[in-house]
Amino acid sequence: MLKRLLEYVGFEPGRFQARWISGSEGAKFTTTIKDMTEKIKSLGPNKKMRDDIV
Amino acid sequence: MDVIQQLREQAKKLLEEKKVDLVIGFGQGTELARTTPVFIDSPEGVSALTWGPFCANNLAKYLTDYKNAEGNVAVVVKGCDARSVIRLLDDNQISRDKVVVIGVPCPGQLEWQKVAAEVKPGASLKETADNGESFSVKTDAGDYSFNKKDYMLHRCLVCENPNPVIADITIGKELPVKTYEERFAEVSELEQKSTEDKSAYWDKQFSRCLRCYACRNVCSVCTCQICVFDQMLPMWVSKRTNLSENTMFHITRAFHVAGRCVDCGECDRVCPMDIPLRKLNQKIHKDLGDLFDSPTPGSKPGIPSALGEFSPGDPEEFM
């Protein structure tokens, strides 16, 4: 719901991600973080809701 | 006998028989096209009550002010306001035995600014009537007719519950219920736009926000004793009025009422900067319907809040 709302107000799809990872799922954690950093890098710096934009 | 007369009689009866100690209803405001909430505690006062196409306020909000007061309260509600009453009952904010709900089927409410722009200033109201496609407004400075399509509040054009969904006393005739396929037309249109366009659209809206908190104050489901936006320790949202903080405020506000918002549209109506807040809430309503098959909160008693309940069939996009 929140993800949809954020995308509705103009955040890029993928900027906000949520995953459920159990403490025993080490491999899932690594792949998720890898995917996430790749996605964020491709999106570039966030432009919305920044303190330096007044 | 017309609705106003019946309303006054019922209110008088309730007060005389001591069934309630207070009646909250609509009273004529200082301007022709406006009403003001009235709080009546004696049978002699009931003549202040009125009804018509200028009763946009959601009076159910006031019920929470009296939840710890001694005695019972009667409240005049439209269809949309009745959803608030159900939601407040389901949230255990008010107790059913302390509230008498006077329901009035509502043919829609006019936008007072649009009416005030047409009517001669200083004129006083004589009579209003619903003619199906339009409202006729009789004043001492002539008669007017306002067609619903152009003059009604936006929210009333896709009204889901013209008849109160909860009422102890119903005054006036039940109205036909229509279903509107295009209920979320505006939301869908905005959803289709590109990320940049959506961002630009909302930046334009949020940057105008004064942070007056009228939207929060008027909201019937904003019932927190200490509001997250007032709290200083920790200060979840800064008090600074800039685009970044305003965006934070609006997303948080909309999400705090997600699953409980009854779509009464009051936040949108009271916004002094005309920020289309209902478009945010409606986005959530649309998603709740799509993902959880959830009806509008408050439209039936006892429906659990989609976000307050777990069921094994819930979509799990984050797994």
UniProtKB/TrEMBL annotation, chain A:
InterPro entries per the UniProt record, alphabetical: MvhD/FlpD
Keywords from the UniProt entry: Iron, Iron-sulfur, Metal-binding, Oxidoreductase
Protein name according to UniProt: F420-non-reducing hydrogenase iron-sulfur subunit D domain-containing protein
UniProt organism field: Pelotomaculum propionicicum
Domain F420-non-reducing hydrogenase iron-sulfur subunit D: 2-44
Molecular function GO labels: iron-sulfur cluster binding; metal ion binding; oxidoreductase activity
